[in-house]
Amino acid sequence: MSGKTIEAGEGRLQELTPDVIRALNRLRKATYVEGVLPQRIKVGVGLAISAAIRCEPCIEGYAHSAAKSGLSTTTSQYRARL
Q: Are 62 and 40 a contacting pair, CB within 8 Å?
């Protein structure tokens, strides 16, 4: 499934259930707030789980988030490890 397909699906869900999507987005944002665990650790765990279940769109998303949070491995390096 490509990133564009996922985005299209999210757009359709937003149209059908805007309140649910807003709540999920708030939950997602709250999950990655600095707390007991730093954001980079949370993103790293999400990336590891994505790799373990071989979810390509998830890996791409978490690899992007990992780079933004200071983790240094690239998406291609994660894919090579699959």
A: no
